[in-house]
Design a protein that fits this description.
The structure is a single chain. The protein is of the alpha+beta class and about 220 residues long. It contains 6 helices and 7 strands, in the order ααβααβββββαβα. The protein has one domain: START domain (Alpha-D-Glucose-1,6-Bisphosphate, Chain A, domain 4), CATH 3.30.530.20. About 25% of the residues lie in helices and about 25% in strands. The relative contact order is 0.17. It comes from Mycobacterium terramassiliense. This is SRPBCC family protein.
Length: about 220
C-alpha cells in the first residue's frame, strides 16, 4: 500500500522531479543537461565550499582529536596560539593570514554523530558567524575499508563580503577574511591534507592521535 506522500498538495510543485510525474525517459535528459565536463569555479565553490578526504585512522580517535579546539593549532595553515578565554569553551588564537588577527573559536561536537563544528570569527567573540561544519564517518560503513572519511563544508555567509564589526578590526589591516573566499576550496583541501597526514602518521606509528600536550 503506497504512503500518502504529498497528498496535502493538490497541484504539482515546480522543480520537484519524481518518477510518478517524470518517468525515466523524461528525467534522463534533465539529468544529462545538469552534467558538465567542466564546472565553473563559482558553481562548485560559490555558495558552499565542500572538501572531503579518506583518512587511514580509526574514526573515534580522529573525532576525539578534532573535537579538541587545540587540534587546529596543528592541522590548520595559519591559526596559532590557542588560549582559553574567560568564557567557558571559547578560545582565542591568531590567524596569521590577517597579520596576527585575533580569531575566536568555539567547538560544538557530537560524539554519537561524530560531528565537529567550529564556530569562529575574526576580531570579536560575541558573534561567531564563520562556521566550519565537519563530520567524521566510519569508512568501514561507506567505503568497506578501515579508517575515516572526513566531510567539511562552509557556507558563504554574507559577512564574508563585508566586515560587520569594523570597529573591532585592528587599524591598517590590509585584508578581510572574505577576500580569501575564492581560495577556500583549495585552502581547505590543503588543510585537510594536513589533518590526514598528521593523523595517519600518529596512527601508523602507534602514537595517540590526540597528543599528550592536549590531554
Amino acid at each position: 500500500m503506497p504512503l500518502p506522500a504529498l497528498e496535502d498538495i493538490p497541484t504539482p510543485i515546480d522543480g520537484v522531479t519524481r518518477i510518478e510525474t517524470s518517468p525515466r525517459e523524461k528525467a534522463t535528459p534533465i539529468i544529462m543537461d545538469m552534467m558538465r565536463s567542466v564546472y565553473p569555479h563559482d558553481q562548485v565553490f560559490g555558495e558552499y565550499c565542500t572538501v572531503n578526504a579518506y583518512v587511514e585512522c580509526p574514526p573515534d580517535e580522529l573525532y576525539d582529536y578534532m573535537a579538541d579546539t587545540r587540534s587546529l593549532e596543528e592541522w590548520t595553515y595559519s591559526l596559532r596560539g590557542f588560549t582559553p578565554t574567560e568564557e567557558p569553551g571559547l578560545w582565542l588564537a591568531y590567524d596569521r593570514l590577517g597579520s596576527e588577527t585575533e580569531i575566536y573559536t568555539r567547538t560544538i561536537a557530537n560524539a554519537q554523530a561524530r560531528t565537529v563544528d567550529y564556530h569562529c570569527a575574526w576580531d570579536q567573540g560575541k558573534h561567531l558567524w564563520m562556521v566550519y561544519l565537519m563530520r567524521v564517518v566510519d569508512a568501514q560503513v561507506v567505503l568497506d575499508k578501515p579508517g575515516s572519511v572526513v566531510l567539511w563544508t562552509n557556507c558563504h555567509h554574507p559577512f564574508y563580503d563585508h566586515n560587520p564589526y569594523p570597529e573591532t578590526a585592528p587599524p591598517q589591516r590590509p585584508v578581510w577574511v572574505g577576500d580569501f573566499w575564492e581560495m577556500f576550496g583549495a585552502g581547505h583541501l590543503l588543510e585537510l591534507k594536513n589533518l590526514k597526514a598528521i593523523a595517519e602518521y600518529r596512527h601508523r606509528n602507534g602514537l595517540p592521535v590526540t597528543p599528550d600536550w592536549m590531554a
